[in-house]
Every structure is written in C-alpha cells, then in structure tokens.
Amino acid sequence: MILTRLLLLVLFVINFSFAYAQEEDPWVIGLGLNVVDNSGSRFDELLNIEDNWNLSRLLKITVEKRFDYDYGIELSTSINKFQRGKKINSVFSVETINYFAVDLMVKNYTSNYWNDPRHAGYTGYVIGGWGGNFFNEVINNTLNVGLGLNIRLGAYMWLNFQTLGKFSIDNNTPGNANHLQHSISVVIWL
Predict the structure, then answer these.
(1) What are the extents of the domains in the chain?
(2) Which fold has domain 25-189?
(3) CB 146 within 8 A of CB 161
(4) Residues 6 or more apart from 78 whose CB is under 8 A from it?
(5) pLDDT digits (tens, 9 = 90+) for 74-129
C-alpha cells in the first residue's frame, strides 16, 4: 500500500513537471531522415535526385532546448552514405564514402512574430551554427545556414522539414565541399 502511494506520488510529480515544461522552456527531441546533396552543382541540379541525392543510412536525431518560444539551441547528428556513382564536387564518385555529421545550431522562430506560438498550426524558423562533417575519417568544419518548418500533428507532436546549406571553413579538398542537407523528422515536446 505504501509502495502504491509512493509510486502515485512520483508519477504525479513527473507528470506535473512535464506539464510545466510544456509551457515554459520545453525540451524537444526529433527522429527523422536526411538526404545529402554534395554534387557541387549549386542550384543548377537541385532536384536531380538520381545523380545528386544520397539516400542510404538516412538517420537524423535532434535534441533542442527552447527559450521563450522564439529561440532554441539544437544539437543534431545525422548518418548517411555517398554511394559509388553519385556526384561529389561535380565528379562521379568511384568509391562509397560514409558520412557522419554533428551540428550545434541556434534557431529563431520567425513565424512567432505574427502567430501565437501556443496555438499556431505551423512554425517557421531560420537556423545557423557550426557543423562537423566526417567523410570517412576526414573532418570538414562548416558554417550552417538554413530554413525550417514545423507542422503541428498533435498537442506536442510536430512534423519538421529543414534544409541546411553547409559551407566549408576548411580547405576544399575532394570530399570536403559545401553541401546541402535536407531532412524530415517527427519532433516531440517533452
């Protein structure tokens, strides 16, 4: 009996703290898919999926801390693979290259300037920050800039679309080029 009451008390405290976190500065986690375009063609062949987009090992995981509805800090990691025969820096690859990225970025939810963020059906944002991108064992540091859109699926669940331009701040050696990363994720407010 005492154990049951203690368990109910613990569940009440956890539930209350999650409910409070929803209204103030929530944590947001996301799980999704990503594609990488490292073709070097800039915007000329943006939708040439067959030659330019890399679609294997599509995992993307994000953790975000929101502040006052308008700002957030996001840490994300993504895994992908460049298949043999895909374009890398305007040249067709002769080998398979593993891709792993870790990004630390800041978000500004610009749609909150005209929408009430607690009741809006969507939120749009601009995002920017640092990225560490590994092409096999070679690291490429990037400055990231992008746009994103969240569409409400439920009270605390959103569908996220995001596009990042990743601009190299290292020497542009083969495999370490500017590239685009597109993602779609399901995000949940905790």
Answers:
(1) 25-189
(2) Porin (2.40.160)
(3) no
(4) 34, 59, 60, 61, 99, 100, 101, 103, 181, 183
(5) 999 999 887 776 666 666 767 888 889 999 999 999 987 788 767 788 999 999 99
Q: Which residues 6+ apart lie within 8 Å of 80 measured at CB?
A: 34, 35, 36, 54, 55, 56, 57, 58, 99, 100, 101
Instruction: Express each pLDDT in 4-53 by its tens digit.
Output: 554 555 555 455 445 544 556 789 999 999 888 775 555 555 555 555 56
Phi, psi torsion values for 8, nearest 5 degrees: -65, -40
Structure tokens at 172: 């542009």
Q: Tokens 């062949």 — which residue?
A: 45
Name residue, tokens 């991108």: 133
